[in-house]
Amino acid sequence: MSLVDESFELKELQVLEGHADRVWSVAWKPATGFDGVPAVLASCSGDKTVRVWEQSPSSGSFQCKAVLEETHTRTVRSCAWSPSGKLLATASFDATTAVWEHVGDDYECVSTLEGHENEVKSISWNASGSLLATCGRDKSVWIWEVLPGNEFECVSVLQGHTQDVKMVQWHPNMDILFSCSYDNTIKVWAEDGDDDWHCVQTLAEANNGHTSTVWALSFNATGDKMATCSDDLTLKIWGSDLLTIQSGNGSAPWKHICTLSGYHDRTIFSVHWSREGIIASGAADDAIRLFAEDGDGLVLNNPSHNGCDLEFFVVDEPKYHLLLKKDKAHDMDVNSVQWSSAGNRLLASASDDGTIKIWELISLAGDQKPPL
Amino acid sequence: MVSNLINANPVVYEKKDRRTRSAVNDVDEYVGEPIDQQEIFDHLRDIKDPEHPYSLEELKVITEDAIEVDDNQSYVRVTFTPTVEHCSLAAVIGLCLRVKLMRCLPSRFKVDIRVAPGTHATEAAVNKQLNDKERVAAALESPNLLNMVDECLAPSYAS
């Protein structure tokens, strides 16, 4: 389905209030929001708590179902659900990662992961839920193995970044780990078999990389493209060969595809790629922006090919365009944007203003241009 | 006094005259007057230097001219000049500036703090830290640092 010819609106459905300080991150619970299962969202804040919100099947509005408190002693910076949705991991400035389980009506902290020397900034579960990765200001990335009985064992401490690591994210299909940092780079980590993890690639300035802190990264649904966002005011799209990634044979190198610059004038804190291919960004100018890929990679009247009028190429470099910009999405910085994976085109955003907003991407009836 | 100070002999300047303002100098979003350079400077001028019993104005760490403000765009940029090129307290001064403005300006304002170009050996590094909001937030959760900042800010609250 082509996103090029339609026009869209981001409709604000609800404002979730309750946190007493800025909200840093939100995470949709997997396997909720469709087939009669109410959508569930977790949020975490500078108020040291985590809140779990559930959509009411009758009214459609989100209510706060639980407040996870009295565990973290400092800001909770990010949260992530395990792929099964059974566990919720939360990363805090108190240098710990807590793992929570839904028990009856409440959430119980079933494990606390210690080891980082200072603020833990991000957590990510791998696709099968067998591994957990964390990262923080101590410049390291930790990989933990998930054992029976909610036990976690550290299998590797990865050094390599020269500064604060802002986010970790597992590849959607393979056990390859990605991290991005205050050192302006993105690192790719893979295993040599037998818990021997090491950095197989670094995407730095010299590789068309970012020129300031990289705050977040997000994969497309197929896992052959990745979007990164930065304090350098750009979004970058990277690509790798899908077959090579899937063969698991050595590292599939990631290459820069495209840089989206001129769209943001303040730090971009968050980027998230929906299953449908829409890239959302949340920035320090209080706005949310949506981007989509142009066409299907067909290029017409490519100026570098003189005299060729209607020549089409399968382009190595797809182009992206701004789908829409939501100004003043919040009253303050947008820290996190997350698409629901339920295919309901819902987007959640978190802000310094202490609120979370739920948005719906609505397609407006537009002229259908004839296919080229 | 044992001289472990980074700058034992700062140059102290005279304070500028204060313009009396007709409006109360509090955060009041309903006052029609746009926020200007003078107002921002008034918020910052009496902040105490972390090392010496002098204000940032007296040490010419900040001057009115080094403040850029656009009320329509809700934007402020403060450029400050550490007293010595290798001043390791530059980050603390920058933090004080940021915290004071955070507490005094309406939340719609976007604030950039930077060291005056050419006045500090690790200028880029200091600027990056001061403008990384996550680093600032984490730093302010440290009781020791928060105390230091509050001590520097105390004289600047007296009207």
TrEMBL record, chain A:
Pfam families (alphabetical): WD40 (PF00400)
Organism: Coffea arabica (Arabian coffee)
Keyword Repeat: yes
HAMAP family: ciao1
Ranges of the WD repeats in the UniProt entry: 16-54, 69-101, 113-146, 158-189, 207-238, 327-361
Alphabetical list of InterPro entries matching this protein: CIAO1/Cia1 (IPR028608), WD40/YVTN_repeat-like_dom_sf (IPR015943), WD40_PAC1 (IPR020472), WD40_repeat_CS (IPR019775), WD40_repeat_dom_sf (IPR036322), WD40_rpt (IPR001680)
This protein's name: Probable cytosolic iron-sulfur protein assembly protein CIAO1 homolog
Summary of the function given for this chain in its UniProt record: Essential component of the cytosolic iron-sulfur (Fe/S) protein assembly machinery. Required for the maturation of extramitochondrial Fe/S proteins.
Family under the similarity heading: Belongs to the WD repeat CIA1 family.
Keywords attached to this entry: Repeat, WD repeat
From TrEMBL, chain B:
Keywords: Chromosome partition
Originating species: Coffea arabica
Stretches assigned to the MIP18 family-like domain: 38-106
Designated gene of the protein: LOC113703933
Gene Ontology BP, a term: protein maturation
Domain of life, per lineage: Eukaryota
Membrane-crossing residue ranges in chain numbering: none
Any one Pfam family match given in the protein's UniProt record, by short name: FeS_assembly_P
Family from the record: Belongs to the MIP18 family.
The name this protein goes by in its record: Protein AE7-like isoform X1
Record-linked PANTHER family: CYTOSOLIC IRON-SULFUR ASSEMBLY COMPONENT 2B, CYTOSOLIC IRON-SULFUR ASSEMBLY COMPONENT 2B-RELATED
Taxonomic path: Eukaryota, Viridiplantae, Streptophyta, Embryophyta, Tracheophyta
